[in-house]
Predict the 3D structure of the following.
Amino acid sequence: MLEIHTQSECRWGLWRIDETWLELLGGLERRDAYQPFLESVSAGGRRTEWLAVRALLRVLLGYEPTVNYRPEGYPEVDGWHVSFSHTRHYAAAICSRDTVVGIDIERFRPRIIGLRDRFLDRDELALIGGPNTDDVRRLTVCWSAKEAAFKMLRLGSSDWLRGVRIVAYDPTSHQLTVHETLTPNTYTFKIDFSLASDYVLTWGRRG
């Protein structure tokens, strides 16, 4: 399953991974360039997700790009701002010529309830039901939105759990407002989200 969407200056896509890693590799052109990574990991699932991202980028960009990584850990493609994310059975990516972008995909897992107080303060929890909320879907939306926003900051390791805050949550428009205090710019982002039965996808652009 492949979904491609265009929004403002961005193009993003979602790939439902039904292929094996060997099937994905067979559909790509730069197979030799991918061998060092593939040989460095033994888990078939990780190989599959990694290759699905490359396959999705090929569809989004119209060619198979070289992906490099900055020391801070974020990906770079010549001429594009890109971001991607993957989890079991899914890969997501977003690209823009003009603006920094971020995307994240998370599966719904009950264990996020136990992490609630680590990544949301009382004001944030009040937006989604209060300090004792056990709404796995809304908690996961907030976690994922913070991940997508943090990717747009292009920082290395940092306390993003507290340095990136949810200041508005609108389930009707499927959008959150996220404010960060980790950079001198103190950006405020609009983060869109899409819900499925087993995952949430969040994405946004800077500026």
